[in-house]
Amino acid sequence: MKNPRLFHHNRPKRRLRPIGAVVIAAAVVCIAAVYMVSAHVPASGQSVPSSAVTKSTPSKTAASHAAVSSTPLTPAQVAASHLPAVQVSLAEAAKPLWVHVDLTTQNVVVYDAQNRVVEAFICSSGSPGNDTPTGTYTVTDRGESFYNPKYKEGAYNWVRFNGSYLFHSVPFDANKNIIPEQVADLGEPSSHGCIHLSMDDSKWIYDNIPRGTKVVVDNS
């Protein structure tokens, strides 16, 4: 409890700090906070819980996307993928969409409400000992990119579907260059639990799979 003597009417009046300075200081703090999102990235850029990840500014992200979006898959990766054929365009697809992650084939397939294939992608799920959990989940939040200074790695286009488990691009290094070895691993279980996708495919998921979309992960 505060000491009542501190409020004696003869106490000298305190000088008030100018309101304008307080408002400006608060605004600076708020602006700085806008550029932080929550997540954590292990050494290979996967499994992202909610803590301490820096979100890149839109201008830097756009430039980085332009530099790495054409990272190609090899013909061998495509041939081994067993991707199903697309049956309906996104524009003609019956909504809502849903996403199937097949850990056996290392494919991500997007279906419409009539179970027609809208898109299909090669992925990398969790490596042995870092298995991606199976089950039925729901897409929640997303972000343009994240980076963890501790491991000097990050990724673009992350979309959360199960706590610390995300869809996102193959990881990039401290200079925001996509790591070639991670691209070469697409089609094989190689992550720490998240679902790795090529740059272009992760951008498609980021742009077209809304919050609330069902995600089924299994070994079919």
Automatic annotation (TrEMBL):
Pfam families: YkuD (PF03734). The active site is at H168, C194. Residues 97-218 form the L,D-TPase catalytic domain. Keywords: Cell shape, Cell wall biogenesis/degradation, Membrane, Peptidoglycan synthesis, Transferase, Transmembrane, Transmembrane helix. GO terms for biological process: cell wall organization; peptidoglycan-protein cross-linking; regulation of cell shape. The chain crosses the membrane at residues 21-41. One of its GO terms (molecular function) is peptidoglycan L,D-transpeptidase activity. Pathway: Cell wall biogenesis; peptidoglycan biosynthesis. GO terms for cellular component: extracellular region. It comes from the Bacteria. This is ErfK/YbiS/YcfS/YnhG family protein. It comes from Ethanoligenens harbinense (strain DSM 18485 / JCM 12961 / CGMCC 1.5033 / YUAN-3). The lineage of its organism: Bacteria, Bacillati, Bacillota, Clostridia, Eubacteriales.
